[in-house]
Task: inverse folding
């Protein structure tokens, strides 16, 4: 599905009247940044579950999702940077949206580093969950940064509730790319969490029975 | 609560490095930065606030470094946990003492330096107030970072909590602009007071939970 979205977007969608072919990077950039935020939000929900109901699996999911979130945030930042050259004439701008996304990337690294620094993994899980919950404050900041500050970054072109300002010939491949990337990341998440659960529970009876 | 504040004030006043170090870092950065670059007073007046803001961030980090480390290592935290079953009072007193003994002098120095760099005399109070509020927020956030990485070194704490401090810096930047352009100061200050009160009430709870995790 992701390939279909990309092929449609990169080869068959029409050129943009202003940006020419350079706009086609949205088929990578937009899905990446959407999932960069969604993954963190998912982690925050898991963190809450872990802290309130002591669900062990929730902590495992956070630990498995964090590297994927960091990777996808990096892709979002990098692709945005590449897009910045033909449109803004610069690789980087200290704009509210871009800076808050960079903060999200640092948050992901912080979560991973914090977890990695403790030998007692139960303790690491709980501290990581606390940090994830506190860090979720950054998500509405990213989302609303283009409205709250006068930024170089454009406001959202796609809206769930209202009408989208993007032409359907570009919108459909973009939506397919978003859904496709979603499925890809879910698959990656499942694989990653499966191997992490097995590594954490390797001495447990149920794992020894299955392996 | 008063006994906590008394004990923490006494402990901090005995640790010369902990309260004098941040003040010296603040003064050093504020003096050294303009000297280290060839710049006209006109340009300096325009962006000196940025230097104050960054210095504030650095000094808040230096000031809170090892905030709970000694208590953790000498067993005080464990004793406190056995006695009170909670760290809320301890954390809130600690942050209060740190803000009073380090944060307010830092804010005063920052306001003094801004006054020496083109800010109108009657704005001194406004800058001072903003810097105190920023310190309150930053001390809470860095205390949280330190509580997370209590015995793992300050770098880990700062890596974890620095992203949270950046919105404070953005807010402070906006507040400073409101002083420079004399527009919307009351609104921004009210917002900062509101956030400050919320953070001061909630953050000690979260720090308390983080500390409990280390003790458990």
Result:
């Amino acid at each position: 599905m992701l390939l279909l979205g990309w092929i449609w977007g990169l080869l068959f969608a029409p050129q943009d009247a202003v940006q020419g072919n350079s706009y086609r990077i949205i088929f990578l950039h937009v899905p990446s940044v959407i999932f960069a935020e969604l993954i963190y939000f998912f982690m925050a929900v898991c963190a809450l579950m872990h802290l309130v109901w002591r669900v062990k699996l929730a902590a495992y999911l956070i630990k498995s999702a964090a590297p994927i979130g960091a990777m996808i945030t990096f892709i979002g930042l990098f692709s945005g940077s590449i897009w910045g050259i033909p449109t803004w004439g610069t690789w980087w701008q200290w704009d509210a949206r871009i800076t808050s996304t960079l903060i999200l990337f640092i948050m992901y690294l912080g979560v991973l580093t914090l977890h990695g620094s403790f030998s007692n993994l139960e303790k690491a899980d709980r501290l990581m969950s606390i940090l994830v919950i506190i860090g979720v404050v950054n998500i509405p900041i990213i989302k609303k940064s283009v409205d709250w500050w006068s930024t170089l970054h454009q406001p959202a072109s796609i809206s769930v509730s209202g009408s989208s300002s993007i032409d359907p010939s570009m919108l459909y491949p973009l939506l397919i790319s978003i859904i496709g990337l979603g499925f890809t990341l879910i698959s990656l998440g499942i694989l990653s969490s499966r191997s992490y659960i097995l590594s954490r529970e390797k001495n447990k009876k149920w794992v020894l029975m299955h392996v | 609560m008063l006994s906590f504040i008394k004990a923490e004030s006494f402990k901090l006043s005995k640790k010369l490095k902990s309260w004098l170090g941040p003040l010296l870092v603040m003064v050093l950065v504020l003096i050294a930065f303009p000297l280290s670059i060839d710049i006209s007073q006109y340009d300096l007046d325009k962006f000196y606030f940025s230097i104050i803001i960054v210095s504030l961030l650095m000094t808040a980090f230096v000031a809170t470094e090892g905030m709970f480390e000694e208590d953790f290592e000498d067993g005080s935290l464990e004793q406190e946990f056995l006695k009170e079953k909670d760290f809320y009072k301890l954390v809130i007193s600690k942050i209060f003492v740190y803000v009073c003994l380090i944060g307010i002098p830092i804010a005063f120095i920052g306001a003094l330096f801004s006054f020496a760099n083109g800010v109108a005399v009657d704005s001194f109070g406004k800058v001072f107030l903003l810097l105190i509020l920023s310190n309150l927020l930053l001390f809470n956030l860095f205390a949280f970072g330190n509580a997370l990485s209590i015995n793992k070194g300050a770098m880990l704490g700062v890596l974890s909590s620095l992203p949270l401090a950046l919105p404070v810096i953005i807010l402070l930047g906006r507040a400073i602009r409101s002083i420079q352009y004399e527009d919307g100061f009351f609104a921004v200050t009210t917002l900062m007071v509101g956030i400050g009160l919320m953070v001061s009430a909630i953050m000690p709870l979260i720090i308390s939970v983080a500390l409990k995790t280390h003790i458990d």
Notes: Residues 22 and 59 of chain B are 5 Å apart (CA to CA). The longest helix of chain B spans residues 185-215. Chain B has one domain: 2-215.
